[in-house]
Design brief:
Length: 531
């Protein structure tokens, strides 16, 4: 032992477990009257946000949910979803946010697999939840949420209540001065998120308090959030816990602007009316903004940062966003890394680049997040791997999958990328999405980017099609922008002007491209359609 190992023990005065829950208590102490949540006609202060979160935690405890128990929620981007992110772990429970577009069988699997003790469900999703509950072995307490700001002209309708109590009545049961407890260990689980389950049942990804707290700090840095940011909820909060932004905003006492449905007019109205500074989403959200009808657009005179992840955004979309007044920050990550763990850290010297060169820099995924310890690509082109405190604890009840994901002391992403000389990574494809044609590797992303550069193309997805001669050839599925037209022959000629001939699609199909609720293209569905 050295001199620094003697009489310098860890104790309650000098060590406390990291948790994002302290962000909210601090914000409520400093800014109790500042608006924390906007939802329709509702304005909720930080003091009320903190009070209601404690009430929810107290009510959960009174209902017999023990620390480590699972509380599932199936909610839109509404105030109860934000309160659940704080109140559930304040009670020592673990939050499971269920994708609102799932079918009853998958919902039932998640409820049983997580051993859910309570379910809070928005009445927009009551019908599908009722079908799921009819299939489960668990017997959770069911709570209804009846949104008072649910619009009459909504694109969806409410279903009949299925619970034993309404959400507001549950919150009213709780103590507003509830003395919530810090986690006993920062390694304690804070939330559970299921992967998309494209092959077999989805895997349950477990987050811990330490990782969620570090993501809060890192999001502020990576997104360039100053004092009191205004954040528009275009990203579903059920997706990787909204990339941890439900906890992040309290670091700088920012305002959450809730948005139940992502529509161009609603986004422009919120940006203009509330002076939104930040929003997140997949490239499809950017496309809906820049392709909106002129009647849906609103001018704004302030800087708006759009954080995008999922598939690499097409260069044409990035250029369109810049022309529309948005600053795009490109992020990359996975469910297993709490959402974004890589950021395209912008350099001042890139500001002088022309449009195509600037877009090419923006399209790269970037460098590791401040809270990620290491990021690697082991070959000229190889699998991207992560190591650090914002990597999941593992997969719930699935030690074999956890061991495989963590082999060699790294989390293996399954994504293929290259490491540029300046240390920035650039994704080339998912390992399973590389098309091998005549022994040559073809990046589906490269082909998609070529298609996106055509002004008529709104969405493009490229998958492999079996070929007797070449083994595989590229097949493109294309959606056109409203009011635009182009033939397959014209698109093929466009591709040949920018790609090597062997990389060009051998076939183009014009039809709707299937997507997840977060805007990711479901290539596994397209592969089934190849025929």
């Amino acid at each position: 032992m050295g001199i620094y190992d003697e009489h310098l023990e860890r104790n309650a005065a000098n060590y406390q477990p990291l948790t994002p829950l302290t962000f909210l208590s601090r914000a409520a102490l400093i800014h109790p009257d500042r608006v924390a949540i906007i939802h329709g006609s509702l304005r909720r202060s930080y003091g009320d946000f903190y009070r209601r979160s404690r009430q929810l935690a107290s009510a959960i405890e009174k209902r017999g949910i023990m620390p480590g128990g699972t509380v599932a929620v199936m909610l839109a981007n509404t105030p109860p979803m934000l309160e659940a992110h704080h109140g559930v772990p304040m009670a020592g429970a673990v939050l499971l946010s269920i994708n609102t577009r799932l079918d009853p069988d998958i919902i039932a699997f998640q409820l049983d697999h997580s051993e859910a003790r309570m379910v809070i469900v928005d009445r927009e999703f009551s019908a599908v939840m009722a079908q799921a509950l009819a299939k489960v072995k668990v017997t959770p307490i069911v709570i209804d949420y009846d949104d008072p700001d649910f619009p009459e002209d909504a694109p969806a309708k409410k279903s009949e209540a299925i619970g034993t109590i309404e959400y507001e009545a549950l919150v009213a049961e709780g103590d507003p001065d509830y003395d919530w407890q810090m986690p006993g260990d920062e390694w304690d689980a804070i939330s559970l998120n299921y992967t998309s389950g494209t092959t077999g049942n989805p895997k349950g990804v477990v987050y811990h308090h330490r990782g969620a707290a570090l993501m809060g700090y890192s999001n502020v840095i990576a997104s360039g959030m100053g004092r009191h940011p205004v954040y528009l909820w275009t990203l579903p909060m059920f997706h990787c816990n909204g990339w941890c932004f439900p906890w992040t905003l309290a670091v700088e006492a920012g305002t959450h602007v809730c948005l139940r449905w992502v529509r161009a007019k609603a986004m422009f109205d919120a940006i203009a009316d509330h002076r939104v500074t930040h929003l997140c989403g997949a490239p499809i959200v950017m496309a809906s903004l820049i392709n909106a009808a002129e009647a849906e657009k609103r001018p704004f005179d302030h800087t708006v940062t759009f954080n995008t992840a999922a598939a690499p955004p097409p260069q044409a979309v990035l250029a369109g966003m810049r022309d529309a007044g948005f600053e795009v920050t490109h992020l990359y990550g996975l469910t297993e890394t709490y959402g974004p763990a890589v950021v395209n850290q912008w350099k001042d010297e890139w500001d002088t680049l022309d449009g195509p060169a600037r877009a090419a820099q923006t399209a790269r995924q970037g460098v590791r997040y401040p809270s990620l310890e290491d990021l690697a690509v082991m070959e000229t082109i190889g699998e991207v791997m992560f190591r650090g405190n914002i990597v999941m604890r593992g997969y719930l009840k699935n030690p074999e999958a956890s061991a495989e994901a963590f082999r060699g002391g790294w989390f293996h992403s399954g994504d293929l990328g290259v490491l540029h000389e300046d240390g920035y990574i650039e994704l080339k494809d998912r390992a399973k999405d590389i098309i091998i044609s005549g022994g040559e590797n073809i990046s589906s992303i490269e082909v998609e980017n070529a298609l996106y550069r055509h002004p008529a193309v709104q969405t493009a997805a490229v998958v492999a099609k079996p070929d007797d001669k070449w083994g595989e050839t590229p097949l493109a599925f294309v959606e056109l922008k409203p009011g635009q037209s182009v033939t397959a022959e014209e698109l093929l000629a466009h591709c040949r002007a920018t790609l090597a001939r062997f990389k060009c699609p051998k076939e183009i199909r014009f039809e709707d491209v299937p997507k997840t609720s977060t805007g990711k293209i479901q290539k596994y569905v397209l592969r089934k359609m190849v025929g």
